[in-house]
Structures are given as C-alpha cells and as structure tokens.
Specification:
Number of domains of chain A: 2
CATH class of the largest domain in chain A: Mainly Alpha
CATH architecture of the largest domain in chain A: Orthogonal Bundle
Helix content of chain A: 25-40%
Distance between the termini of chain A: 51 Å
Strand order of the largest sheet of chain A: 4-3-5
Oligomer: homodimer
Strand content of chain A: 25-35%
Order of helices and strands of chain A: HHHEEEEHEH
DNA sequence: CCCCAAATCAGTAATGATTACTATTTTATT
DNA sequence: AATAAAATAGTAATCATTACTGATTTGGGG
C-alpha cells in the first residue's frame, strides 16, 4: 500500500486533472472540495514532498507565487505578461542537457520559461 | 544627460562587473562600498526599474531569492542543488522562439534554468 | 481486537524577502 | 536663488511560505 495519506492523494489528483499551473493556495481551494477540513500547511508540506520526490514539478515564473505542475514530461512554459496565464509547449531537453554536460554539470531538471504576450491577449 | 541617479549608476556598475548572479541584499552590500548611506529600498526600487526597462535581467531559480544579471545576452543558467551556485552557458534562443510563435505567442525574454550538480560539487 | 510507535494532520504563530509609505534631499530648469 | 518634480533614506507594513504543537491517523505485531 502506498504510504500516501488521503490528503496527499487528493493534492496529486487535483494536479493531474488540470493543465493549469496552480499556486499552493489555489490548490488548497480545489482540494477543499473533497476534503473540507484540510489545512493550508498540509498542502504546502505535501507539495514540497511531492516536488522533492519528483512526482510533480515546481515552477517559478517570477510573479511572486510558486506554481505547481502535475505533468513532469519535458516541456517549456509560456508565461503571458499581460494576463499571467501559463501554457505548455513541448520541448526536447536533450540538446540542452548534452551541452550542459560539457560544463561538468550533471543535470536533472530543466525549467524553461518564455515571457511575452499570449495569443488571446494579442488579439485584444 | 542620463536621468540616472548616482545610486542607479552604482547598482548597474556592480551588476556589470560580476559574472555572479547576486540577490538584492548582496547587491546592497556591494553598493555600500561606494555609497555607504544607500538604503535597501533604493536598491530594490532601482533593480525593479532596471529590470522593467530591460537593462538587467531578473532570475528566479526557486531558492526563495530573486537574482539579478547584468548580462542580457542570450544564455541559460545552471543552478547547482548542492552549493547553490549559478553559472552561465551560451544558448541560442532562436529555436525556442520560433517554436513559440506557432502558438500565437509573442516572446520577449527567455529564461532557461538547468538544475543539477555543478562540476566542483561533483568532484567533492 | 487492542496496543504502540511513527507518521501525518489541523490550526496557529513566526519568518523574512519584498513592497509601501513619508518626510527629506537632490536634481533640473528658469 | 526659487521652484517643482524626482529620487532618496529610513521605517513600517505586507503576505507567501515555513515552523511549531498538541491531537489524530496509520500500520504492524501480538
């Protein structure tokens, strides 16, 4: 049996059933629908544990909030300076990873954030 | 005449004469050597202005601190999980930028952070 | 089924990087 | 020199995140 608490399962479920990149407090709100008594500290603690174990990704786009991503496949993030949205884009990390190794650096994770204006904001 | 204050000039000089990626409070310490009475708020305000105007880069590696970079040429950052150092690596952004545009996204800045273990930490 | 120890929790308090505020000083122009 | 606008030093406030504490849950024997 997995050594997961109900709380941790619920957090993981929330993250795996969205393609948004919610913050801790947004995740807190979403998990409250199935576990009304969960505490914010529990959300933070489990997000930290899941991130450390590699089951989820932590993402920092410089807006003052830590964002989380249940999709750990290799992809880049497009962050809109206007509306703040974060969208995914496939990205092969091999090229960058091999270049990195020439520096004696052993890579484990790649975080690629492109800043700009998203499609919707461009049209409005 | 540039509408730069002495304080802003000093901050820019500090950033352009190092290849480290200092935090605001480290920059504060460094600038104090030439301007002992500068205040931390002034450092933050000018870093924010310089970053907005594109003269410097703001960099977030997820260690809880905002880092700043006086080198605005296209390059990736290698962040060591062991010692916390940040080193530069040349990176052509064209490939990623052109892919991004297929999403209707207008890119202006690319932030690429590779996490792992640096050369020195690998040897110790 | 019951006990126990380890893990996790809910709730709250503390932390600390960053931002906001205010009275003063500097700067640019006339 | 006078004036108005901009920037500053110093301090107070903000708020996302982390730490803490006593209670609850969990799993493994006996």
């Amino acid at each position: 049996m997995k050594n997961y608490s109900r709380q941790r399962e619920a957090i993981l479920n929330v993250l795996r059933s969205t393609d948004t990149h919610p913050t801790a407090s947004r995740i807190y709100e979403m998990v409250q629908q199935s576990l009304p008594n969960i505490s914010l500290g529990t959300v933070y603690r489990n997000l930290s544990a899941l991130s450390k174990s590699g089951e989820i990704l932590s993402l920092d786009v410089g807006d003052g909030f830590e964002h989380f991503d249940g999709d750990i496949s290799s992809h880049a993030h497009l962050h809109c300076r206007s509306c703040g949205c974060i969208t995914d884009m496939p990205l092969k990390g091999e090229l960058i990873f091999s270049a990195v190794q020439e520096y004696g650096f052993s890579p484990d994770t790649l975080s690629c954030v492109v800043y700009g204006i998203c499609k919707d904001c461009n049209q409005n």
